[in-house]
Amino acid sequence: MNDLSNYRKSYERSVLLESSVDENPMMQFRKWFCEVEDFGGVDEVNAMTVSSIGLDGFPKARVVLLKSYDENGFVFYTNYNSEKGKAILANPHVCLSFFWASMERQVIIKGIAHKAPAVQSDNYFDSRPVGSRLGAIVSNQSEVIASHEELEQKLALLEQEVEGKEIKRPENWGGFVIEPVSIEFWQGRPNRLHDRIRYTLTEDQLDWNIERLAP
Predict the structure, then answer these.
(1) By the 8 A CB rule, do 95 and 110 touch?
(2) Confidence (pTM)
(3) Which of 58-91 are b and which e, b meaning 16 or more Cβ less than 10 Å from the residue's Cβ?
(4) Dist CA 102 CA 44 (whole Å)
(5) Quick one: how far is CA 17 from the chain centroid?
(6) Predicted confidence band at 164 (pLDDT cuts at 50, 70, 90)?
(7) Are the beta carbons of 117 and 127 closer than 8 angstroms?
(8) Rg (CA), the chain
C-alpha cells in the first residue's frame, strides 16, 4: 500500500469572514479571482473542473478553461457531440470547482447548464487562433481514433481547403452557460478548521442566502 497519511499542510494564508464577503457571490468570485491572479503562482487561474453525470450513469470530472463570467453565469466552450457535451445536454445539473493552491482557496459552484446564444459562440470562435478553430473542426471529440497522425493529416487537408476562406464555427461546437444556484467559497485555515461560506439562491431567484458551513 502506498501510504500518504503523512502528507499534511497547515493552511495559514488568509481568513474568510461573513463580515467581509460581498452580498453578491459573483462579485465575491470576481474579488477572489483577481486576488489570486495578482498573487501569482497559478499558471491558469481560469482552469476549472467540470463535473457531470454521464450517459452511463457515472459522474465524470475534467478540467476546462473558464472563458467569461457575469451575472448570467460561467461560460466555457466545447464540442456538443463530445462525451461531456452529450452528458450536459442530457442532464444539465453540473458542478464547477476551482482550486487555487497558492492562496489555499477553493470555489465550488452548483448550477444549471444551457447552450450559449449562437452569436456569443460565433464571436468567441472567431476570436480564437486559426489553428484552434481548425482543430475544433477536425476533432470528433471523445470518439476513438487510430492515431494522432490521423488528426494531423485531417488538419493538413483542412488547412488547404480553407486557405483564403472564412472559417465558420461548426454547429456542434459552442458555449455552455452555467447559471449558479449555489456557490461555496472555501478558505484553508489551521487545524483543519477551514472557513466555508455558501451562497444559495432563494426560491424566487432574486436573492442569495449566506451561510457558514462546518469544515
Answers:
(1) yes
(2) 0.94
(3) eeeeeebebebbeeebbbbbbbbbbbbbbbbbee
(4) 12
(5) 25
(6) confident
(7) no
(8) 20
Q: Based on the residue annotation, tell me whether 192 is a catalytic residue of this protein.
A: yes
3-state SS, residue 20: coil
| Tens of pLDDT, residues 181-209 | 999 999 999 999 999 999 999 999 899 99
Contact 205, 51 (CB under 8 A): no
DSSP of 189-203: -GGG--EEEEEEE-T
First to last CA, the chain: 28
- Position of cell 494564508? 13
CB proximity list for 98: less than 8 A, separation 6 or greater? 47, 48, 49, 105, 106, 107
Burial of 26-56, coded b for 16+ CB within 10 Å and e otherwise, reads bebbeebbeebeeeeebeebbebebbbbeee
Catalytic residue among 133, 192, 198, 212: 192
